[in-house]
Write a structure and sequence with these properties.
single chain, seven-stranded mixed beta sheet, Alpha/beta hydrolase, globular, two-stranded antiparallel ribbon
Length: about 290
């Protein structure tokens, strides 16, 4: 019996048309998002692997538990459970998963996944993701504010435009409103939010409580191929408020003493790196792969 039998998240494979992948990377979105948020960017990254790459990467866009099309997962709803979902996905796919990339909430899931597969992963990317407990991070209240807003919107919703106006009226940008609207679906009686907000609350509470710096700062020494191959990259938005100043300093100090880890800052980007500076992020990732 498969040790990881159980819930498997929805996913999509992204590859270059002319290059069969030799290894694969999981791509993990942030809270309230889905794998589709990264489809356009990752397709470009995959196509950059087509020419001359000796071991080209393929990418696995994951809808994390209770997001996108990965609905009705069993409890507990925790960061660790989301990482366990990825282990089951890898078993099911039978692909050689050698990397993980996580944005924001997905970054903490990526760290737990790294901890589970320390001897096997070759590339790890944290994209504007703070390993600190939520209380210690900057901009900590935004996700909680989004959750509160979504709970307050009466359902069914008359139209997508009504949803967008409700989000904008609460003080969020048009970009955030459009992103959240990806979770709004037409049903028989109107439009409804496809997220289980109770599960979102559980995931956010666990995310907020977790301190995962130990995965980066004091990992067991890898063995086998991972000892030579592993490279970690932290990419931060210069204008992002999601990373506490103390965490930025901690990343830089760690990179100074850990040769396997690099820190990159995109000066003009906020938290949404792939939207704020897609070319800058692409160049960092392409070079790192």
């Amino acid at each position: 019996m498969n040790a990881h039998a159980g819930f498997v998240p929805h996913h999509a494979l992204v590859t270059a048309p002319s290059a069969a992948p030799a290894r694969w990377m999981l791509v993990l979105h942030g809270i309230f998002g889905s794998g589709a948020n990264w489809r356009t960017f990752v397709r470009r990254l995959a196509e950059s692997q087509a020419e001359g790459a000796p071991r080209p990467w393929g990418f696995i866009l994951v809808d994390l538990r209770a997001h996108g099309m990965s609905q009705s997962p069993p409890a507990p709803h925790t960061v660790a459970a989301a990482a366990e979902d990825l282990l089951r996905l890898g078993d099911q796919l039978g692909l050689d998963v050698r990397g993980v990339m996580g944005h924001s909430f997905g970054g903490k899931v990526a760290l737990v996944y790294l901890e589970r597969r320390l001897d096997e992963l070759e590339r790890v990317f944290l994209l504007d993701s703070d390993p600190s407990p939520r209380e210690a991070s900057a901009g900590a209240s935004e996700s909680a504010s989004v959750l509160e807003l979504l709970r307050a919107i009466p359902q069914p919703i008359a139209s997508r435009e009504v949803f967008l106006e409700a989000v904008r009226s609460a003080g969020f940008s048009r970009g955030i409103a459009e992103w959240l609207a990806m979770n709004v679906r037409r049903e028989g009686d109107g439009f409804r939010i496809r997220l289980d907000l109770d599960i979102m609350s559980d995931l956010l509470a666990d995310y907020s409580a977790r301190d995962l710096w130990h995965v980066l700062e004091a990992p067991p020494k890898p063995s086998g191929a991972a000892r030579e191959e592993r490279r970690g990259h932290v990419v931060l938005g210069g204008r992002s408020t999601a990373i506490a100043p103390a965490s930025r300093e901690r990343f830089e100090a760690l990179a100074a003493r850990a040769p396997w880890l690099s820190v990159h800052v995109l000066p003009g980007a906020g938290h949404w790196l792939h939207a704020d500076d897609p070319d800058g992020l692409f160049e960092v990732l392409r070079a790192a792969l």
